[in-house]
Specification:
The protein is α+β, with helices and mostly antiparallel strands. The chain contains eleven helices and nine strands.
């Protein structure tokens, strides 16, 4: 008798936890517990095994178990009918709930705009691997192993093979283009790059670049300047002022950095431009003859120019973003501001 009582308690727990959202579920409950071959009938059949002196007490327990199952069945029936009534009150002709529409990431917006501007000038899109070998990332760009300029970029190397690394600039894409094509070459190379820097509002361990390369006969620094003047006017507006400053890059000679008048303060001076009225947006220069020779390009016949810019910097100026970390935090409040942005 003790075993049967334990079974009854287990069945009660199952009955209490049983859920039914529709008529089919309620019928499944009835068949399992109250049907002709249901559990209640089976438990009732145990009555014949009970000694005569215990039949009265055991019969009372069985009647309570049957009443418990029937009460649960009636409750499930009532809930199912109410649910069906609620369903019938729905007006299916009404328009559905609108799904929220996403937006392009601000870096994607700016990257696409930069690429579009240079494509209008005849630059083709080129991409390459983010995991690079030392030659394409450094050596081919006039940065031999002992070159001090390598210290300018704190690099992530692959531990299993230190000759492989996460590219520090998209110049490696230019290297692969010069390796596989002969002039004339005119390409724009966007992509993600990596440097081992402390993450802060002004720096990150990964960011995005767009670099350009043009190699042909009689290409001059004047061609470089006019190309970049056009880019600035298309990206920031016709009234944006531009200036070039001499600089140094191992893969270009001569080299220059390009500044534009600060869009935040209009050139009057603010914290973004460090109260100078100017903001540096890219580096540029004429391709070093040694770089051309590394790929079998005759530096006496061909010349070229190259430039590179950070997409985050352009995006910061265009959309007034003051913290680089916002680009990678996936904060919907930040990203939703760019719905409909061009």
């Amino acid at each position: 008798m003790e075993a049967v009582l334990a079974q009854i308690e287990a069945f009660k727990a199952e009955i209490s936890s049983f859920t039914a959202n529709d008529a089919a579920g309620v019928e499944a409950f009835r068949i399992r517990f109250l049907g002709t071959k249901g559990i209640v009938k089976q438990v009732m059949g145990e009555m014949k095994q009970v000694p005569v002196e215990q039949k009265k007490a055991f019969g009372q327990i069985l009647n309570e178990f049957k009443a418990f199952a029937e009460a649960r069945y009636e409750a499930l029936q009532s809930a199912s009918q109410q649910h069906a009534t609620d369903e019938s009150l729905l007006d299916y002709s009404l328009p559905g709930d609108a799904f929220p529409v996403g937006a392009r990431h601000p870096l994607s917006l700016v990257r696409n705009q930069i690429v579009s501007i240079f494509q209008r000038l005849g630059f083709a899109l080129a991409e390459g691997p983010e995991i690079e070998d030392d030659w394409h990332n450094f050596g081919a760009m006039n940065l031999p192993e002992d070159h001090p300029a390598r210290d300018m970029q704190d690099t992530f190397y692959v531990s299993q093979n230190p000759s492989w690394l996460l590219r520090t600039h998209t110049s490696s894409v230019q290297a692969r283009i010069m390796e596989s094509q002969q002039p004339p070459i005119r390409v724009i190379c966007p992509g993600r790059v990596y440097r081992n820097e402390t993450i802060s509002a002004r720096a990150h361990c990964f960011f995005h670049q767009v670099e350009g390369l043009y190699i042909d006969e009689h290409v001059s620094f004047a061609d470089l300047k006019q190309t970049l003047y056009y880019f600035v006017q298309e990206m920031f507006g016709k009234d944006t002022k531009v200036r070039f400053r001499p600089s140094y890059f191992p893969f270009t000679e001569p080299s220059a950095e390009m500044d534009i008048s600060c869009l935040i303060c209009g050139g009057d001076g603010c914290t973004v431009c460090k109260h100078s009225g100017w903001v540096e947006i890219l580096g540029s220069g004429m391709v070093h003859p040694k770089v051309l020779e590394n790929f079998g390009i005759d530096s006496n016949k061909y010349t070229g120019f190259a430039f590179g810019m950070g997409v985050e910097r352009i995006c910061q100026l265009k959309y007034r973003v003051n913290d680089l970390r916002l680009y990678s935090q996936n904060d919907v409040r930040f990203l939703s501001q760019f719905k409909g942005a061009l």
